[in-house]
Specification:
The protein has 344 residues and is α+β, with helices and mostly antiparallel strands. Helix content is 42%, strand content 15%. The mean pLDDT is 94. It binds cytidine-5'-triphosphate (CTP) and magnesium ion (MG).
Amino acid sequence: GHHVSSQHVRIRRRELQCRFDIEKFTPAFLSIYESLVPVDEEIVKQKQLLLSLRKLVNKEWPNAQLHLYGSCANSFGVSKSDVDICLAIDDTNMSKSEILLKLADLLQADKLENVQALTHARVPIVKMMDPVTGIACDICINNLLAVVNTKLLRDYAQIDERLRQLAFIVKHWAKSRGVNETYKGTLSSYAYVLMCIHFLQQRTPAILPCLQELEATCVVTIDGTTCAYFDQVDRLRNFGVQNNESVARLLWGFFQYWAYYHDYANDVISVRTGRLISKQMKDWTRRIGNDRHLICIEDPFETSHDLGRVVDKYSIRILREEFERAADILQYDPNPSVTLFEPY
Ligand code: CTP
Ligand code: MG
């Protein structure tokens, strides 16, 4: 307890100043980013797979629609990611499980491989692999909020390329260090991207605006939740030009923030408002059921969802130690673009 926290205070004081030579690592981080971005050929294959699945599904359900969501559509997908697809279907005669089982049959008959219906998962899906393209794919049913939050992330990525650079490197760090596994109590990729967006909204001058606070040009209501925001992002292309921080500097700031400055006891990060909001205001101050709210990341549309709800009293320590390790590497290591990603 006390020993650890007094150590924190010492580190904090030492690190108020940015490393003076941090910018010199930007080329190395940018080349890591470039190596993670999928090549066009991969995107073409994903589109092909989507088209052939649409044909198959529409033979059985003419009015159903298939939407890409997650990293293959939000522009934060690294090379060789799985493809996430949402089947939007309005069949009142069949339950979700029955639809999934029927879908699994159709896929199996169409020679897709490793077809598996996971009807009891938290998000029920059918998993499969397409032997033609080698792409692995998960299909869920009627998860349209995920389709809309995918578009929100993609729209933010269009505003300033530094968001994609930062988020790719943060995701790569999280996977290398084993802190991108919700079943082990660490954070989802979706949560990390929201943390990056929020961080760039908070820079001075700001690098990203808050799209949900601007005049709404895109409004949809899904299961009673209204999703509204400004989506004409080509009009915001110059938003961040007053700020010339490069990716190495931003990474340094991102990890400093999560290691030494974020107020875990009181604050919630909120992309929806572009600000920090208080746990008190959301009534996230105590444990309710399994939601412990040890690190609070508000979902931009489902505002009662804390994406940090998976984090428990053990994994919060691991997570915070990893933030501190990353911050210290960016502060002192002679070769941060290598050390940061060393396997744990
Ligand atoms: N999602 C969500 N709520 C969550 C987790 C995920 O709505 N608590 C949705 C988001 O639309 C997200 C998608 O599910 O984009 C996939 O989530 P995730 O696997 O965390 O992110 P990916 O972007 O697919 O990342 P990865 O590259 O690691 O697969
Ligand atoms: Mg995914």
